[in-house]
DNA sequence: GCAAATTAATGATTTATTCAAG
DNA sequence: CTTGAATAAATCATTAATTTGC
């Protein structure tokens, strides 16, 4: 392939440095006007289009998050193997039956005073956990498979027919493989591409 | 930090996933019986109490709404940053934030009326992605030095005046409207590494 | 040293999900 | 109930790094 007909943008070191500096400064998903300016200034250092800037931030953010997610999963899995579920654990710890009153009062006894709790949000998106086999089907409360359990919960939660969302089959529990389905090696479909791009 | 010394609940990935699945399925404010059951099942995966479940739903719902609200406000506000200092390269072209969608909207302009067109996915693999000319930048003439320019970009990107540098430990305020507060790894660049000057 | 072969990074696309407006 | 807008996740595809045999 001729170098003049490169099919995708190849950032120059200066462009990359500036993009990373912007990212480091907090920009994650720039909008149209920002993309426009960034593109204009980065074009001083080489050929670039707005879509390149857009894609760069998308990918960088996603892969940053992916990295962090993987790190956290590893940490959490190595930290505590979570002993229990031995005997009568199906007794939950002391739910005062006035919990429903919280819904009315909406004032927790220990007020979370405005600050943002980070922990759930950090790892709040999809990820594929790896459940050791000893956690699979042992406890008496796990007789129901979790999909069924979830369905029953949703059933209770939605007595009125307001949410008929199809509830696409999300894999809550990976079946057997201890594979965190990342690192997808792209040896799957390597058919040759068309020879002459119309550039 | 050891989990035994942790003063607050730290959800395991399994717990978090199940909670999010329940949330996605429509549960927003579970009542006492639901909380009880959810807690019972989640306790298979780690230490948890009913109040954790309760608070999780409260917080998740609130932050979901907050995120949406801020996103909408932001994207409305970012339509007018055009009265900055000097803008002789400002083009009236409107770059939407979703560049990728333009492949759908743009390339098959329905040449044949009255016939169902072939689904774009069928032919999209060998499609030569060329952004229409209205997205292409003209050669910029702005010569602001990159530091000042970067600051202005960050200014736009950060409506909150409190964070203009990466906080290493904990970030209480979201920098952009829609991001999840993950921390970045600064060493992702292979071509250049910036020695983090602003400290 | 060098290319061919292989692997890792990353740019570019597609798909799915969300909320809310119509 | 449908659709629009936005974007995150997943995937595809190409380039760069690197490994390997010579």
TrEMBL record, chains A, B:
PROSITE patterns for the chain: HOMEOBOX_2 (PS50071)
Keywords for the protein's UniProt record, in alphabetical order: Developmental protein, DNA-binding, Homeobox, Nucleus, Transcription, Transcription regulation
DNA-binding region(s) in UniProt: 4-68
GO MF term set: DNA binding; DNA-binding transcription factor activity
Domain Homeobox: 2-67
Entry GO CC: nucleus
Stated family: Belongs to the WUS homeobox family.
Protein's UniProt name: Homeobox domain-containing protein
Source organism of the structure: Erythroxylum novogranatense
């Amino acid at each position: 392939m001729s170098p003049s007909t490169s099919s995708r943008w190849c950032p120059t070191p200066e462009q990359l440095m500036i993009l990373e500096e912007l990212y480091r400064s907090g920009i994650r998903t720039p909008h149209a006007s920002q993309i426009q300016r960034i593109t204009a200034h980065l074009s001083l250092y080489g050929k670039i289009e707005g879509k390149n800037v857009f894609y760069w931030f998308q990918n960088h953010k996603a892969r940053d998050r992916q990295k962090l997610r993987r790190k956290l999963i590893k940490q959490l899995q190595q930290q505590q193997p979570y002993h229990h579920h031995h005997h009568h654990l199906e007794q939950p710890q002391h739910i005062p039956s006035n919990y429903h009153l919280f819904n009315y009062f909406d004032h927790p006894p220990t007020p979370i005073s405005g600050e943002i709790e980070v922990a759930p949000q950090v790892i709040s998106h999809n990820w594929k956990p790896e459940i050791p086999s000893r956690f699979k089907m042992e406890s008496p409360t796990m007789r129901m498979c979790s999909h069924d359990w979830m369905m029953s919960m949703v059933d209770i939660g939605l007595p009125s027919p307001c949410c008929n969302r199809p509830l696409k089959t999300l894999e809550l529990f990976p079946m057997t493989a201890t594979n965190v389905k990342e690192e997808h090696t792209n040896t799957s479909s390597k058919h040759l591409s068309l020879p002459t791009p119309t550039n």
